[in-house]
Amino acid sequence: MSNHLSTYKDRTNLIPYSSRLAEGRALVQDVWSIFNAANLPSDCLNLGQGYMNFAPPRWIVDSAETALRGVAANHYSHPRGRIRLREAIRNFYSPSFGKELNVESEILVTSGANEGQYSVFTAFLEPGDEVIMFEPFFDQYLPSVTFNGGKPVYVPLHPPSDNKKNPTSDDWTIDFDELRRAITPRSKMIIVNTPHNPVGKVYRRSELEHIAALAEEHNLLVMADEVYDCLVFDGKEHVRIATLPGMWDRTVTVGSAGKAFAATGWRVGWLIGPPSIIQPTLAATTRIVFCTNSPLQEAAASGLEKAQEFKFFETQLSEYTTRRAILMDAFEKLGLKYTIPEGTYFVLLDVSRVKFPHDYPFPPSIIGRGRDFKASWFIAIEIGVSSIPVSEFYCEEHANIGEAYARFSFCKDYDTLKQAAERLQKLKQYID
């Protein structure tokens, strides 16, 4: 045995890892690791990562504590999800889908929205199947597709023209000729993220109707990532693509308790769709995680059950409207162009005019990345406010589009946002 082992002189990588890790960018240091609090000054305000720095409502936390003190909710749940939560999802969402949802065949509780999406890819993708993704895209889509044998096909949203004074997220547009050209005989799915992370775009009904027509023509499965459906501003209409004529049968809609109730660490999400999509996905999720954590399903159920009584989503929207205004006012005073988001809790700031010394001591993780990485790092170190560079959410071919922008999140308490707004004014000295 010792002679056999001695033939391997370099023992650092004895077993080759799967090529899917490279294809999904999983081995590249991701933007979340680079702009992690551990790598930034201790007093840097984190407006980069999209998690809240405040707790869920007390009445929802109380439900979690009650569940933890019991017996049943501390054990395995049914892989479909706890019946209380499925019934709460049915009661809350049925009106917006225009149909009575079936808790046994049309609702599936998952371990966060991300695991739910992953399970759909597992259930439906064959090697080489193509998945169309609008850019910028939530970065988890890419590895979730490639790990399941899929091939991503990228269609960029086109940003507003330079002469647009106060662009909104609606000014980020789809070139439908470009979208049609992206569809091939291998196309299997299309992901529609509305409200959109990181742009904040709330897709217009006409846009969704055009996408729906293409999906019907080419028999595409539609993944409607609608985790920010509770955060739509300025009276904008959130249209569920699943409710358009003929689309229920080919659409799976993704929801999230973490986004809805300021509880991103709970990892409770759900899928809504026809049995023909939910049943195969159930088979996949059962083998991936078996079931989702039980006590926090009970808490999420309580959130949906009592939301109307507490006027929770109306109050939350009002509070987020105020938060959005604090950040946008800061950008307005700064004199930099930004995109007014009509949904989500992100604002894109145009950082193309931010100057930094060519010999600035950027860490190795920033070298070789887009200009937006350097701008975001410079702002974090010198100004004390962190953001996320948007080129991370593009393929290499289209990364130049994202290099102009940094994503700032406003899912923070008022004091943090006001402090960040004050700090950002110091950026004026570095604007070209």
TrEMBL record:
Superkingdom as given in the UniProt entry: Eukaryota
Cofactor: pyridoxal 5'-phosphate
KW Metal-binding (keyword) present: no
Annotated InterPro entries: Aminotransferase_I/II_large, Kynurenine-oxoglutarate_AT, NHTrfase_class1_PyrdxlP-BS, PyrdxlP-dep_Trfase, PyrdxlP-dep_Trfase_major, PyrdxlP-dep_Trfase_small
Keywords attached to this entry: Aminotransferase, Pyridoxal phosphate, Transferase
GO molecular function, one term: kynurenine-oxoglutarate transaminase activity
This protein's GO CC annotations: mitochondrion
Ranges of residues in domain Aminotransferase class I/classII large: 43-424
Keyword Signal: no
Record PANTHER family: FI04487P (PTHR43807:SF20)
Family per record: Belongs to the class-I pyridoxal-phosphate-dependent aminotransferase family.
The protein's name in its UniProt record: Aminotransferase class I/classII large domain-containing protein
Organism taxonomic ancestry: Eukaryota, Fungi, Dikarya, Basidiomycota, Agaricomycotina
